[in-house]
Amino acid sequence: MPQHPLRLADLVRQGRPPLSERSLLASANFTLSLIPIRLAHRLQALQNLPYIVVSNPNISQIYNNYLHSLSILLPYWQAASKGRAISTLDNEIKFTNVLAELVATHTDTIPVLAKGFLECRKYISPEEVTRFLDEHLRARIGTRLISEQHIALHFSSQPHFDPGASPTPCPEHPSYIGVIDTALKPALIIESCAGFVADICELRYGIRPKLIINGEPETTFAFLPMHLEYIITELLKNAFRASIENKSTEPIVVTIAPEPPLKHQPGEYPDIKPPSEDLGLFKSDAIKPLDDNAPGVTIRIRDRGGGIPPDVLPNIWSYSFTTFSEDDDVPSSTGNDGLGAIATASTGGSSIAGLGYGLPLSRAYAEYFGGGIAVQSLYGWGTDVYLRLKGVGKVVDKK
Ligand SMILES: Nc1ncnc2c1ncn2[C@@H]1O[C@H](COP(=O)(O)OP(=O)(O)OP(=O)(O)O)[C@@H](O)[C@H]1O
Ligand SMILES: [Mg+2]
């Protein structure tokens, strides 16, 4: 079955929490209609790798994780396709537990896959690895998002209201719809990520690079705090490291530039439709984008870290471990340089230290909802990174 391309609008289609029982069940069934197809596509992509690569213990561990996740979801899928969609709260609780297990099972996918491909580099070309990883990691972003969104909505719904159990602050904070913050302030995320990265730098190098935020720090827009945090942490890691290595005492300057609002006619903003009466599976796929032309925000991160050497520049977007030569040692996942410490801390122990995932994965996150990342290096001076993010547009409350 074809994979449904995910839009931010899909994630807010049930309206603002707390969801009623009916909307919660609709969300569960919508989630169920998407996830097994996505898992099946990932399994197929893994099966299409050369046999010797899939036989690698790390890669086959990932394969088995996908197989396991699909097998625990299939009973729900089969019931739904026989007309027995998720229609009771009891069933919805069980289904949400399955989703939580899925999210937990796949947490370490990236470092494990990285290690696997590194060990297999004699048997598969760097281009093939990059192609596979790019597709796989992008698809994974969506699958996790769909699952996490339902989990968050579950705990902020009327039947299961439990702020303590929710992975996001959605129940207490009215601006949240599940994992989306409709009034996200990038300046706050930048400050908290910068504090975190600076702490690690101080610990490791004894230096705490300074950071200035200018432009329009009061800007808010609708976006996913989780994704913005990931991207900003990666970009600041790079900027801070370059500054320290280049012995620069200049601050890193982050400029927040909101795009001018688009000209809209009153009432032109699309509504979030209440869920239909029909809770059946597969009936919910006719979805319109919320607002594909929502104004976005561009964030420029400017450092005086000496820029990117011309011989490094062409490779910054590849999962650069693929350029390791056959004699290189596999970098240990608990590297003891500062960068390793930063990566380890930010992923809760599962390190992607120095494997060169920072930029390509950040770009995948940025591009997921129509944004992007551009890098401009002034070799010998510093680097500008432009992160453009598209907002979700106005979320209109149904009164
Ligand atoms: N702001 C910057 N200044 C100088 N060089 C940079 C900057 N950002 C990136 N680079 C160069 O680009 C390379 C790739 O960056 P990327 O973040 O993708 O990987 P990494 O930092 O090496 O490893 P990881 O981010 O996975 O820990 C870096 O190794 C570095 O050489
Ligand atoms: Mg990096």
TrEMBL record:
Principal location class: mitochondrion
Pfam families listed in its UniProt record: BCDHK_Adom3, HATPase_c
InterPro entries, per database record: AK/P_DHK_N_sf, BCDHK/PDK_N, BCKD/PDK, HATPase_C_sf, HATPase_dom, His_kinase_dom, Sig_transdc_His_kin-like_C
EC number from the UniProt entry: 2.7.11.-
UniProt enzyme class: transferase
Single GO MF annotation: ATP binding
Domain annotation Histidine kinase: ranges: 225-393
Family recorded in the similarity comment: Belongs to the PDK/BCKDK protein kinase family.
PANTHER family cross-referenced by the UniProt entry: [3-METHYL-2-OXOBUTANOATE DEHYDROGENASE [LIPOAMIDE]] KINASE, MITOCHONDRIAL (PTHR11947:SF20), PYRUVATE DEHYDROGENASE KINASE (PTHR11947)
UniProt-recorded name of the protein: Protein-serine/threonine kinase
